[in-house]
Every structure is written in C-alpha cells, then in structure tokens.
Design brief:
single chain; about 210 residues; alpha+beta; 4-stranded mixed β-sheet; 4 strands; about 40% helix
C-alpha cells in the first residue's frame, strides 16, 4: 500500500496555528480602474462640474440689499401770479398746474387731458376759471394780460357759477392743491407789507 501523503505537514505539526493567507502586492492598478478614471476626466464632465459649482454659488451667495425707489420731490405750497404759473404747462417734463378761482392744482396725473395735445391743453399753466364755467376751451376764455388783474368773473350767471363750483369740487377731490393765484399787483403789495413788518420787528428788537 502506498504511503499516505499529507498535503499540509506544517499545519499538522502546529495544529493550533491560525491559517494565514498572504496576498501578493499589487504593483499596478487594474486595467478596469485605469480606464474608468480616464472616462471620468473628460472635457464634458469638467464643464458640467464647473456649471454645478457655479449654480451652487449663485444659489448660496448673499442676496444684494433691495433698491428702494427714489422718493418724490416734496411740493412746496407757493403763491403764483399768472406769469409765474405759465411755465407749468406740461411741455417737456414740467408738471401741469391749473388755477381755478384762486387755487392752483397739480393736474399732472391727468396729462392725457391737460398736457400738450390734450382736449384741455389751453388751460395748462393758466387760470381756467372762466373757460370751465362757460364750458369753452377757446383762447378767448383766458386772460391775455399776465401782469394785469385777475378775472373777477363778475359777469357770470348762476348756471355758469354752478358749473364752475362742480369743477372746483372735482379738482379738490382728484388733484393736489399746490398754491394760490394772485395778481402781480397783489403779490407786490403783500411783499411790501411783509418787508415793512420785518423791519418793524427788527427795530422793536433793537429798542428792547
């Protein structure tokens, strides 16, 4: 009978020894890993990665502070004469002012009616009292002498005055009152009295 050959004599000699398997060292990357790395580092993937980073930046960057609209210029209540009121006729970018029985209104929101080319354009920058009372847009309804007295409307009838009152109510409810209209003579008289009052106040202060 042939002798029995023990394939693992060392393990028989050391029955309590652990089985140890030694893996040979890898001297180079497997071919399939090399090809996978090459396929990832392509120009298309680089562009996609750049776009992704850009989108993340756009998403996470702090938002700029909101821009508030510029506040409207404050309107100062003034005293106008027919001549100083005339430039406010809506030409260019100027506001549109209309005087009605001594009160000046800013009708710029109704530029399509009172601005150049509008049906009431003749009233822009003028005293429109007589024209509104008579329901007429003719030039004859306007005062010709801008340095003369204001139209006293003394010849108007009750129906015309009632129509004018209706226009006044409309203007008060719809437009901002920005001043009053006086004649040049009235303005000069008021300025003279104001100057005299200031001079009197200074003289009194010196004496005391």
């Amino acid at each position: 009978m042939a002798d029995h050959i023990n394939p693992e004599p060392e393990l028989e000699q050391y029955p309590n020894a652990a089985h140890v398997y030694v893996t040979p060292a890898l001297t180079s990357a497997p071919p399939h890993l090399t090809s996978a790395s090459a396929s990832i580092a392509t120009p298309v993937n680089f562009i996609l990665l750049t776009l992704f980073v850009l989108l993340v930046y756009m998403r996470l960057r702090p938002a700029p502070p909101p821009t508030l609209p510029k506040p409207a210029q404050p309107i100062v209540f003034r005293t106008y004469t027919p001549r100083t009121l005339a430039p406010f006729d809506g030409t260019g970018k100027s506001p549109i002012y209309i005087a009605v029985r001594g009160n000046v209104y800013d009708v710029s929101p109704g530029r399509q009616f009172y601005g150049p080319g509008g049906p009431y354009a003749n009233f822009a920058g003028r005293d429109a009292s007589r024209g509104l009372a008579c329901q007429s847009f003719d030039e004859d309804m306007l005062t010709k002498d801008l340095d003369g007295p204001l139209d006293g409307l003394v010849d108007l009838g009750s129906e015309e005055l009632e129509a004018l009152a209706g226009w006044e109510e409309t203007f008060r409810g719809k437009y901002l009152r920005v001043g009053k209209l006086v004649s040049l003579q009235e303005l000069e008289e008021a300025e003279r009295k104001e100057a005299e009052a200031e001079a009197e106040a200074k003289r009194t202060a010196v004496e005391t």
